Amino acid sequence: MPKSKVLVTGGSGFIGSGLVRGLLAQGHHVRVFDNNSRGTLENLHDILDQIEFVEGDIRHPEAVDAAVAGMEVVFHLAFINGTQYFYQYPKLVLDVGIRGHLNISDSVAKTDSVHTFVFASSSEIYQSPNIIPTPENISGSIPDISNPRYSYAGSKLLGEILTSHYLEREGLKKIIFRPHNIYGPAMGFKHVIPQLAKKIVDATQGFTQNAGSITLQGDGLETRAFCYIEDAVAGTLLAAFQGEAGQTYNVGREDEISMADLARAMAGIYGVQLTLKTSPKAPGGTPRRCPDVAKLRALGYTPRVSLKEGLQPTLSWYKNYYLRNLKNEAL
Ligand SMILES: NC(=O)c1ccc[n+]([C@@H]2O[C@H](COP(=O)([O-])OP(=O)(O)OC[C@H]3O[C@@H](n4cnc5c(N)ncnc54)[C@H](O)[C@@H]3O)[C@@H](O)[C@H]2O)c1
What we know:
About 40% of the residues lie in helices and about 15% in strands. It has about 325 residues and is α/β, with parallel strands linked by helices.
């Protein structure tokens, strides 16, 4: 495979930093553009001397132009992620999502060296699909414009439309990928796995007790299909470099698990007994989500890490993190 100069926006975030590692392993030259609002250089600490890091905001066109200059492949991941933020900061989500997309598109359109543009969309655009596992040709939708949650899915849908119809340059290859519940160590704190880990830490008083009770958001029957970061990176690289121009690829795994079973599996790994309580669902939550990844599999994708295998390092990272913080709080 030819080696390229690759820009990753959002490259100090969770998926971005994994992607940067995957790109380096393939021998590419990597430049990261991020404002470190959610990501951190800590995620790149062991490879900082192998990459270019440019600190900047995707909403500032001059900064984006400078970051895109001289690049051949652009992965656009910079976004406000994390469900809680969609409810709390919908204006920011839209500003980063849409203004950011217009800026990166304008820069790529006028930078002749860029031959490939890859946009990180999301499983959230499917909402509550009637086909599960869900293939890429199921249409995206926004069920309730008045619900701030959809600031995110709305920005992703518009991002896909902008990628397809606003960003135009002769010969430019464009790929959209839709990650589905990617997890791993240091994945952030606004997702279900770290939130459940925190609830288990609190319920067992920092594992000083071997039993406790936690409250799930919703009835515990909601399902998701989780995909370990290394598999997600492999899938994203395949879609970007082997995928067909103009195509969209789901990135994930096809094993659905309910939130109650996830909590039980996590309790098993932590070696504690959990009593599960339920609570009202957040408005706009989706009952089931699971991707059909046949299109990516046809490119050679084989996810290798089972949920049980991937949860081990992830839960150990969060256990260490939360226990360290408990200790600091006690000081
Ligand atoms: N994690 C998942 O399961 C998942 C699922 C679907 C889609 N995605 C998408 O994949 C991408 C990466 O997700 P992630 O989980 O790594 O999230 P993340 O929050 O860890 O990474 C996003 C990065 O964007 C950066 N960023 C935010 N605002 C910025 C701005 N104004 N200018 C420059 N950089 C900015 C953040 O600092 C962060 O490093 C995002 O586009 C996200 O929407 C992720």
